[in-house]
Amino acid sequence: MSRPLAALLLLVLLGGCTEGAADGPAAPTPVADVDTVLDPCPQQGDQPVEGATTLPAVTLDCLGGGTLDTGRAPGSPTVLNLWASWCTPCREELPVLQGLADAAAGKVQVVGVISKDGVPQADSFATDAGVSFPGAFDGEGELMAELGLPGLPATYFLDAAGAVVHTETGPVDSLDELEGLVAEHLGVRL
Q1: Which of 2, 85, 86, 171 suits a disulfide with 93, CB 3.0-4.6 Å?
Q2: Which of 18-22, 92-96, 122-126 has the weakest average pLDDT?
Q3: What is the pTM of this model?
Q4: How many Cα atoms are found within 13 Å in the side-chain-facing hemisphere of 33?
């Protein structure tokens, strides 16, 4: 290769590497900076969770505002679903969970935990899926790791005191199935 051609090739390669290279990797989008379709997380009292089995205590910011603290009692029966935009079964399950959120308003809370994901990706995914129930953001997957989950989705049924009364790993296929699980494990008929 001739010297001028090699120099030109080097300039082209270096030119492609310099944009943003001095800045390092792009910073993640802060949760507070997202204009989202997701509702704020429900208010929680100061009562610690009680029960034989509880979730690991983590505090997460919610895309729609507020926080989710799994170390505090939710105050009402809750369906907590871990999901992500990269999770293929979540694409089919999220609209089912939204159906439950709509049907159970005032009786059962539905809250998502967005796991190992990016804020823009999760928000876009929620918008595309027609989801508006609250979503706590766990970009590093702390809760997922604490629970030892190898994959998603996973759904936890919590009583008002925060005890885990049932766990469903893998997707729930229909609103009827989900309403049946709520009736069986949380005692709430919709």
Answers
A1: 171
A2: 18-22
A3: 0.84
A4: 7
